[in-house]
Specification:
single chain, alpha/beta, Rossmann fold, Helicase, Ruva Protein, domain 3, five-stranded parallel sheet, two-stranded antiparallel sheet, 11 strands
Length: 331
């Protein structure tokens, strides 16, 4: 009986498993290590969400997103955030056609599939706010006219956790638009040695160019996204997700808890986590796995908790431990 169940799951998630296998193999030829980061980046695309990558410079944040775009056959644009960056610089602007008296809209960098906003917290608040409509409604409104963004439009934004000079902290409304906050850490010693060896052996054209990444087959990404959305969620798991979100709103060390949108994001990412495990149904461990990347940027600690050395991940781990796991959930 167990063999039949396993076969059924494999057939149900055929496209997802094929995509995951190809992503791990192809990105592994360019990126050394960072397995959790790679998984969470592809989860963001499968869930039609945006991701905030936090890490110090030089640990392959940009290269990961660029390689992913090449592998998925998606368009890629990069915007370097600066204090003088204006909304029109990324959204586009209306210009006068030469030799005529008519105006036309010139598309900005957001009109792409994968948009990498490097050091997003260096954007002034006005430009940060300009991204809100793009991220939520996948459209740009200019001069009262709406311009639709590509259906695969996904924002990957980076920020440096240690350099705060000349930065503008992201407001809560903007943070809540990000499905995931991905922590990108230093590679291990063996991975760092591998990085040196690969670059020394390269011909100077760059690892991404020399890897000759072959895009996934047409329709595979769309099929995988549909499979993830179809992951079964039992009623008990709905209650478990809501219980975690609501518990954050009353947790003694938290000033701001998770919103209903955060609970929805938690379910979507948990479905993707189940797919990565080869299951077509949700279990509590999938929800637990999704809690930190989904909620760490959506909760706000009380000042006294920060002074005592607490951080979002530590508090959320306590929240998970304080919410009873449903016994009748799918197994």
């Amino acid at each position: 009986m167990s063999e039949e169940i396993s076969f059924t799951h494999a057939e149900t998630l055929r496209a997802t498993q094929e995509l995951i296998s190809q992503v791990r193999t192809e990105l592994g030829r360019v990126i050394a290590g960072q397995n959790d980061v790679i998984e969470q980046v592809i989860m963001a695309v499968l869930c039609q969400g945006h991701a905030l990558l936090e890490g110090v410079p030089g640990i392959a944040k940009t290269l990961t997103v660029k390689t992913l775009g090449r592998l998925l056959g998606l368009g890629f644009q990069r915007v370097q955030a600066t204090p003088d960056l204006m909304p029109a610089d990324i959204l586009g602007t209306t210009i006068l056609k030469p030799g005529t008296d008519t105006f036309t809209f010139h598309h900005g960098a957001v009109f792409t599939d994968l948009l990498l906003v490097d050091e997003i917290n260096r954007m002034p608040p006005r430009t940060q706010a300009a991204l809100l409509e793009c991220m939520e409604e996948r459209q740009v409104t200019a001069d009262g006219v709406r311009h639709a963004l590509p259906s695969w439009f996904t924002v990957f934004a980076t920020q440096n956790p240690v350099d705060f000079e000349g930065t503008y902290p992201l407001p809560e409304a903007q943070l809540d638009r990000f499905l995931l906050k991905i922590r990108v850490s230093y590679p291990s010693e063996s991975e760092e040695l591998q990085i040196l060896q690969r670059h020394h052996a390269s011909g100077g054209a760059g690892l991404l160019e020399e890897a000759a990444i072959v895009p996934v087959s047409e329709g595979l990404l769309a099929a995988a996204r549909a499979e993830v959305r179809a992951i079964r969620v039992e009623p008990e798991l709905y209650g478990y997700i809501v219980a975690i979100a609501r518990r954050t709103r009353e947790w003694p060390t938290l000033l701001l808890g998770a919103s209903p949108r955060a609970a929805l994001s938690l379910m979507l990412v948990a479905q993707a986590a189940a797919a990565f495990e080869g299951r077509d149904y949700l279990v509590p461990d999938d929800v637990k796995r999704a809690v930190l990347p989904v909620l760490r940027h959506r909760v706000m600690l009380k000042p006294e908790a920060e002074l005592e050395g607490f951080d979002a991940d530590r508090v959320l781990t306590d929240v998970i431990a304080g919410v009873p796991v449903p016994r009748d959930a799918a197994k």
